[in-house]
């Protein structure tokens, strides 16, 4: 059986957690690869300290999502990526392509990049 790569967008909203739960229940198989991707916005005028804080918060959020995965799928290869990007989702799309994902899961909400 071939290993499938799945990317789940990590955001601090309930629909993102629901999307992860759906992915774990319906899409993920034993030994598949799962990437938890969090992209945060940082402007050039933003201080380095503020950007570092946003990155740290992104990792903490990704770790909370990883705990959900470890509880349900302890033998799954889980990778976390936290990076800077734009609000239009170009970075997310580029990362999904670079990873070579066969599935992309995102929780849809009012401020989602998919609406832009």
Automatic annotation (TrEMBL):
One Pfam family linked to the record? Usp
Domain UspA positions: 4-114
InterPro entries on file: Rossmann-like_a/b/a_fold, UspA
Q: What is this protein called?
A: BED zinc finger,hAT family dimerization domain
Q: Which organism is it from?
A: Hibiscus syriacus
Which lineage is the organism of this entry classified under, starting from the top rank? Eukaryota, Viridiplantae, Streptophyta, Embryophyta, Tracheophyta
């Amino acid at each position: 059986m071939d290993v499938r790569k799945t990317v789940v967008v990590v955001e601090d909203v309930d629909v993102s957690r629901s999307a992860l739960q759906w992915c774990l229940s319906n899409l993920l198989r034993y030994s598949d690869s799962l990437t938890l991707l969090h992209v945060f916005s940082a402007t050039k005028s933003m201080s380095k300290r503020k950007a570092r804080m946003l990155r740290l918060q992104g990792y903490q959020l990704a770790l909370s999502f990883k705990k959900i995965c470890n509880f349900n799928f302890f033998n799954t290869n889980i990778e976390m990526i936290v990076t800077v990007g734009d609000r239009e989702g170009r970075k997310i799309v580029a990362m999904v392509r670079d990873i070579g994902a066969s599935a992309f899961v995102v929780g849809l909400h009012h401020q989602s990049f998919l609406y832009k």
